[in-house]
Amino acid sequence: MLVIDSIKACRDAVHALSQMQGRVGFVPTMGALHRGHLSLIEIARKHCDAVVVSIFVNPTQFSPDEDFDAYPRPMDEDLRACSQSGVDLVFAPTAAIMYPQTPRTTIHVTGLSDGLCGRLRAGHFDGVATVVTKLFGIVPAQAAFFGDKDYQQLAVVRQLVRDLNIPIEIVGCPIVREASGLAMSSRNAYLSSEQRTQAASLSCALFQAREQVKAGERCAATLTEAMRRTILEAGVKQIEYMEVVHPDSLVNVESITDSARICLAVRIGSCRLIDNIGVDVS
Ligand code: AMP
Q: In this predicted structure, what is the pLDDT of residue 111?
Protein backbone atom coordinates (compact mmCIF):
# COMPACT_ATOMS: atom_id res chain seq x y z
CA MET A 1 0.00 0.00 0.00
CA LEU A 2 1.35 3.39 -0.99
CA VAL A 3 1.14 6.26 1.53
CA ILE A 4 1.55 9.67 -0.11
CA ASP A 5 1.34 13.22 1.19
CA SER A 6 2.28 15.19 -1.94
CA ILE A 7 -0.39 16.37 -4.36
CA LYS A 8 1.54 15.73 -7.56
CA ALA A 9 2.77 12.31 -6.45
CA CYS A 10 -0.79 11.37 -5.51
CA ARG A 11 -2.26 12.48 -8.85
CA ASP A 12 0.47 10.59 -10.75
CA ALA A 13 -0.01 7.46 -8.62
CA VAL A 14 -3.79 7.50 -9.16
CA HIS A 15 -3.31 7.87 -12.94
CA ALA A 16 -0.89 4.92 -12.84
CA LEU A 17 -3.40 2.84 -10.80
CA SER A 18 -6.09 3.65 -13.38
CA GLN A 19 -3.87 2.57 -16.24
CA MET A 20 -2.61 -0.60 -14.59
CA GLN A 21 -5.71 -1.78 -12.73
CA GLY A 22 -8.76 -0.01 -14.21
CA ARG A 23 -11.55 1.75 -12.31
CA VAL A 24 -10.37 3.61 -9.21
CA GLY A 25 -12.68 4.16 -6.22
CA PHE A 26 -12.04 6.96 -3.74
CA VAL A 27 -13.07 7.09 -0.04
CA PRO A 28 -12.44 10.52 1.55
CA THR A 29 -12.18 10.41 5.36
CA MET A 30 -10.92 12.38 8.34
CA GLY A 31 -9.35 9.23 9.81
CA ALA A 32 -10.01 7.61 13.21
CA LEU A 33 -11.36 4.82 11.04
CA HIS A 34 -14.16 2.58 12.32
CA ARG A 35 -16.41 -0.06 10.77
CA GLY A 36 -18.44 2.67 9.04
CA HIS A 37 -15.38 3.82 7.10
CA LEU A 38 -14.30 0.24 6.46
CA SER A 39 -17.71 -0.54 4.94
CA LEU A 40 -17.16 2.26 2.41
CA ILE A 41 -13.77 0.74 1.52
CA GLU A 42 -15.38 -2.67 1.12
CA ILE A 43 -18.13 -1.29 -1.14
CA ALA A 44 -15.49 0.60 -3.15
CA ARG A 45 -13.51 -2.62 -3.57
CA LYS A 46 -16.62 -4.36 -4.93
CA HIS A 47 -17.36 -1.54 -7.40
CA CYS A 48 -13.78 -0.79 -8.48
CA ASP A 49 -10.42 -2.35 -9.36
CA ALA A 50 -8.33 -0.16 -7.02
CA VAL A 51 -9.17 1.87 -3.90
CA VAL A 52 -7.73 5.17 -2.70
CA VAL A 53 -8.47 6.52 0.80
CA SER A 54 -7.70 10.06 1.93
CA ILE A 55 -7.08 10.86 5.59
CA PHE A 56 -7.24 14.57 6.28
CA VAL A 57 -8.79 16.42 9.21
CA ASN A 58 -9.88 19.45 7.26
CA PRO A 59 -9.53 22.61 9.38
CA THR A 60 -11.85 24.73 7.20
CA GLN A 61 -14.94 22.70 8.08
CA PHE A 62 -14.53 23.30 11.83
CA SER A 63 -15.59 26.56 13.42
CA PRO A 64 -13.30 28.01 16.12
CA ASP A 65 -15.47 26.60 18.95
CA GLU A 66 -15.48 23.06 17.52
CA ASP A 67 -13.24 20.05 18.19
CA PHE A 68 -10.55 20.42 15.50
CA ASP A 69 -7.66 20.15 17.99
CA ALA A 70 -9.25 17.32 19.98
CA TYR A 71 -10.30 15.34 16.89
CA PRO A 72 -8.69 11.84 17.16
CA ARG A 73 -5.74 11.22 14.80
CA PRO A 74 -4.57 7.60 15.26
CA MET A 75 -2.58 7.56 11.99
CA ASP A 76 -0.66 4.30 12.57
CA GLU A 77 -3.84 2.38 13.39
CA ASP A 78 -5.63 3.94 10.42
CA LEU A 79 -2.85 2.91 8.02
CA ARG A 80 -2.91 -0.62 9.43
CA ALA A 81 -6.71 -0.78 8.95
CA CYS A 82 -6.39 0.48 5.36
CA SER A 83 -3.67 -2.02 4.55
CA GLN A 84 -5.69 -4.90 6.05
CA SER A 85 -8.74 -3.77 4.04
CA GLY A 86 -6.86 -3.99 0.75
CA VAL A 87 -6.52 -0.26 0.10
CA ASP A 88 -4.01 0.48 -2.69
CA LEU A 89 -3.13 4.07 -1.84
CA VAL A 90 -3.61 6.41 1.12
CA PHE A 91 -3.37 10.15 0.53
CA ALA A 92 -2.59 11.76 3.92
CA PRO A 93 -1.54 15.37 3.37
CA THR A 94 -0.77 18.00 6.00
CA ALA A 95 -2.83 21.19 6.24
CA ALA A 96 0.18 23.10 4.82
CA ILE A 97 0.13 20.88 1.72
CA MET A 98 -3.62 21.29 1.22
CA TYR A 99 -3.66 25.01 2.04
CA PRO A 100 -0.21 26.50 1.26
CA GLN A 101 -1.84 29.95 1.20
CA THR A 102 -5.16 31.23 2.48
CA PRO A 103 -7.48 30.10 -0.34
CA ARG A 104 -9.49 32.73 -2.21
CA THR A 105 -11.92 30.21 -3.65
CA THR A 106 -14.83 28.70 -1.76
CA ILE A 107 -17.43 26.31 -3.11
CA HIS A 108 -20.86 27.13 -1.72
CA VAL A 109 -23.78 24.90 -2.63
CA THR A 110 -26.80 27.11 -2.09
CA GLY A 111 -29.90 25.79 -0.37
CA LEU A 112 -28.57 22.35 0.46
CA SER A 113 -25.86 23.81 2.73
CA ASP A 114 -28.13 26.14 4.64
CA GLY A 115 -30.68 24.01 6.55
CA LEU A 116 -30.31 21.15 9.05
CA CYS A 117 -26.67 21.10 10.28
CA GLY A 118 -25.87 24.17 8.15
CA ARG A 119 -28.15 26.34 10.28
CA LEU A 120 -26.03 25.81 13.39
CA ARG A 121 -22.64 25.18 11.77
CA ALA A 122 -22.11 28.33 9.70
CA GLY A 123 -19.57 27.75 6.92
CA HIS A 124 -19.26 24.02 7.65
CA PHE A 125 -20.57 22.81 4.29
CA ASP A 126 -18.53 25.41 2.41
CA GLY A 127 -15.46 23.89 4.06
CA VAL A 128 -16.64 20.40 3.12
CA ALA A 129 -17.61 21.30 -0.46
CA THR A 130 -14.32 23.09 -1.06
CA VAL A 131 -12.07 20.36 0.34
CA VAL A 132 -14.01 17.62 -1.50
CA THR A 133 -13.65 19.57 -4.77
CA LYS A 134 -9.92 19.93 -4.09
CA LEU A 135 -9.62 16.21 -3.30
CA PHE A 136 -11.44 15.32 -6.54
CA GLY A 137 -8.79 17.38 -8.37
CA ILE A 138 -5.99 15.51 -6.59
CA VAL A 139 -7.47 11.99 -6.74
CA PRO A 140 -8.77 11.55 -10.32
CA ALA A 141 -10.91 8.51 -9.42
CA GLN A 142 -13.91 7.25 -11.40
CA ALA A 143 -16.15 6.86 -8.33
CA ALA A 144 -16.27 8.26 -4.78
CA PHE A 145 -17.99 6.63 -1.80
CA PHE A 146 -19.76 8.61 0.93
CA GLY A 147 -21.85 7.44 3.89
CA ASP A 148 -25.57 8.13 4.29
CA LYS A 149 -24.56 8.84 7.90
CA ASP A 150 -23.64 12.39 6.78
CA TYR A 151 -26.71 12.65 4.60
CA GLN A 152 -26.58 16.42 4.07
CA GLN A 153 -22.90 16.20 3.12
CA LEU A 154 -23.74 13.52 0.55
CA ALA A 155 -26.49 15.73 -0.92
CA VAL A 156 -24.07 18.68 -1.11
CA VAL A 157 -21.39 16.56 -2.83
CA ARG A 158 -23.86 15.11 -5.36
CA GLN A 159 -24.99 18.63 -6.23
CA LEU A 160 -21.51 20.14 -6.64
CA VAL A 161 -20.41 17.25 -8.87
CA ARG A 162 -23.48 17.84 -11.07
CA ASP A 163 -23.07 21.63 -11.12
CA LEU A 164 -19.31 21.63 -11.80
CA ASN A 165 -19.35 18.68 -14.26
CA ILE A 166 -16.79 16.77 -12.23
CA PRO A 167 -16.38 13.40 -13.96
CA ILE A 168 -16.88 11.16 -10.94
CA GLU A 169 -19.74 8.90 -9.87
CA ILE A 170 -20.96 9.51 -6.31
CA VAL A 171 -22.04 6.36 -4.48
CA GLY A 172 -24.04 6.65 -1.23
CA CYS A 173 -23.45 3.82 1.28
CA PRO A 174 -25.66 2.59 4.15
CA ILE A 175 -25.12 3.67 7.77
CA VAL A 176 -23.17 1.16 9.88
CA ARG A 177 -24.41 0.97 13.48
CA GLU A 178 -23.20 -0.43 16.77
CA ALA A 179 -25.23 -3.28 18.33
CA SER A 180 -27.20 -0.64 20.31
CA GLY A 181 -28.23 1.04 17.06
CA LEU A 182 -25.90 4.01 17.62
CA ALA A 183 -24.51 5.14 14.25
CA MET A 184 -20.74 4.62 14.23
CA SER A 185 -18.80 7.86 14.40
CA SER A 186 -15.25 8.89 15.24
CA ARG A 187 -16.84 11.26 17.78
CA ASN A 188 -18.47 8.37 19.72
CA ALA A 189 -15.05 8.06 21.39
CA TYR A 190 -15.97 11.21 23.38
CA LEU A 191 -18.99 9.49 25.03
CA SER A 192 -19.03 8.00 28.55
CA SER A 193 -20.90 4.72 28.98
CA GLU A 194 -23.93 6.55 30.41
CA GLN A 195 -23.89 8.95 27.45
CA ARG A 196 -23.67 5.99 25.05
CA THR A 197 -26.88 4.62 26.53
CA GLN A 198 -28.54 8.01 26.01
CA ALA A 199 -27.15 8.15 22.46
CA ALA A 200 -28.77 4.82 21.59
CA SER A 201 -32.14 6.62 21.85
CA LEU A 202 -31.45 8.46 18.58
CA SER A 203 -31.61 5.37 16.39
CA CYS A 204 -34.40 4.02 18.57
CA ALA A 205 -36.48 7.14 17.84
CA LEU A 206 -35.68 6.93 14.12
CA PHE A 207 -36.60 3.24 13.90
CA GLN A 208 -39.85 3.95 15.78
CA ALA A 209 -40.66 6.74 13.33
CA ARG A 210 -40.07 4.41 10.40
CA GLU A 211 -42.45 1.86 11.98
CA GLN A 212 -45.07 4.59 12.50
CA VAL A 213 -44.77 5.52 8.83
CA LYS A 214 -45.20 1.86 7.88
CA ALA A 215 -48.32 1.79 10.09
CA GLY A 216 -49.78 4.74 8.15
CA GLU A 217 -48.60 7.89 9.96
CA ARG A 218 -47.78 10.63 7.45
CA CYS A 219 -47.64 13.81 9.53
CA ALA A 220 -44.05 15.08 10.05
CA ALA A 221 -44.95 16.98 13.26
CA THR A 222 -46.52 13.87 14.84
CA LEU A 223 -43.47 11.79 13.95
CA THR A 224 -40.94 14.30 15.29
CA GLU A 225 -42.98 14.86 18.47
CA ALA A 226 -42.87 11.12 19.25
CA MET A 227 -39.14 11.09 18.50
CA ARG A 228 -38.59 14.07 20.79
CA ARG A 229 -40.33 12.23 23.66
CA THR A 230 -38.21 9.09 23.18
CA ILE A 231 -34.96 11.04 23.11
CA LEU A 232 -35.77 13.32 26.06
CA GLU A 233 -36.98 10.35 28.15
CA ALA A 234 -33.56 8.72 27.59
CA GLY A 235 -31.96 11.72 29.30
CA VAL A 236 -30.71 13.68 26.28
CA LYS A 237 -31.04 17.37 27.21
CA GLN A 238 -30.24 19.21 23.99
CA ILE A 239 -31.94 18.42 20.70
CA GLU A 240 -30.61 20.69 17.94
CA TYR A 241 -33.09 19.69 15.27
CA MET A 242 -35.40 16.91 14.15
CA GLU A 243 -36.78 17.34 10.66
CA VAL A 244 -38.51 15.40 7.92
CA VAL A 245 -37.11 16.50 4.57
CA HIS A 246 -37.30 15.69 0.87
CA PRO A 247 -34.45 13.21 0.18
CA ASP A 248 -32.89 15.28 -2.64
CA SER A 249 -33.76 18.95 -1.98
CA LEU A 250 -33.65 18.60 1.84
CA VAL A 251 -36.65 20.94 1.97
CA ASN A 252 -38.99 20.30 4.93
CA VAL A 253 -42.08 18.23 4.24
CA GLU A 254 -45.21 18.53 6.38
CA SER A 255 -46.75 15.30 5.19
CA ILE A 256 -44.95 12.31 3.71
CA THR A 257 -46.37 11.48 0.29
CA ASP A 258 -43.40 9.72 -1.29
CA SER A 259 -39.91 9.10 0.05
CA ALA A 260 -38.46 11.30 2.77
CA ARG A 261 -35.47 11.50 5.10
CA ILE A 262 -35.86 12.00 8.83
CA CYS A 263 -32.76 13.78 10.15
CA LEU A 264 -31.70 14.80 13.64
CA ALA A 265 -28.84 16.28 15.61
CA VAL A 266 -28.39 16.36 19.38
CA ARG A 267 -25.72 17.33 21.86
CA ILE A 268 -24.72 14.93 24.61
CA GLY A 269 -22.12 16.52 26.86
CA SER A 270 -19.49 18.02 24.57
CA CYS A 271 -20.37 15.64 21.77
CA ARG A 272 -22.57 16.53 18.82
CA LEU A 273 -24.27 13.51 17.22
CA ILE A 274 -26.24 13.25 13.99
CA ASP A 275 -28.33 10.45 12.56
CA ASN A 276 -31.00 9.92 9.92
CA ILE A 277 -33.21 7.33 8.28
CA GLY A 278 -35.02 6.98 4.96
CA VAL A 279 -38.76 6.32 4.77
CA ASP A 280 -40.79 5.53 1.69
CA VAL A 281 -44.56 5.28 1.26
CA SER A 282 -44.73 4.88 -2.51
P1 AMP B 1 -15.53 11.26 8.35
O2 AMP B 1 -14.21 10.59 8.60
O3 AMP B 1 -16.37 11.40 9.56
O4 AMP B 1 -15.37 12.53 7.53
O5 AMP B 1 -16.32 10.25 7.41
C6 AMP B 1 -15.80 9.80 6.19
C7 AMP B 1 -16.87 9.07 5.43
O8 AMP B 1 -17.31 7.95 6.19
C9 AMP B 1 -18.10 9.95 5.17
O10 AMP B 1 -18.58 9.68 3.86
C11 AMP B 1 -19.07 9.47 6.21
O12 AMP B 1 -20.43 9.63 5.84
C13 AMP B 1 -18.73 7.98 6.27
N14 AMP B 1 -19.18 7.41 7.53
C15 AMP B 1 -18.91 7.86 8.78
N16 AMP B 1 -19.57 7.13 9.70
C17 AMP B 1 -20.27 6.19 9.01
C18 AMP B 1 -21.14 5.12 9.38
N19 AMP B 1 -21.45 4.89 10.65
N20 AMP B 1 -21.68 4.37 8.41
C21 AMP B 1 -21.39 4.61 7.10
N22 AMP B 1 -20.57 5.59 6.69
C23 AMP B 1 -20.01 6.37 7.62
A: 97
Q: Give pLDDT tens digits for 27-52.
A: 999 999 999 999 999 999 999 999 99
Tell me how crowded residue 10 is: count the other CB atoms within 10 A of its CB.
Answer: 24
Report which residue type is found at 35. Answer: R
Q: What residue's CA is closest to ligand 1, atom 19?
A: 184
CA dist 166 and 6 (Å) reads: 22
Degrees to nearest 5, angle at CA 150 with 145 and 188: 110
DSSP strand pairing (238-245 vs 169-173): unpaired
Give yes or no: 108 in active site. Answer: no
Q: What is the mean pLDDT of the chain?
A: 97
Is residue 124 in contact with ligand 1, taking CB distance under 6 Å?
no
Residue 193 carries which DSSP code? H
Nearest atom within ligand 1 for CA of residue 149: 12
What DSSP element (H or E) covers 153?
Answer: helix 151-163
Q: pTM of this prediction?
A: 0.98
109-147 tens-digit pLDDT? 999 999 999 999 999 999 999 999 999 999 999 999 999
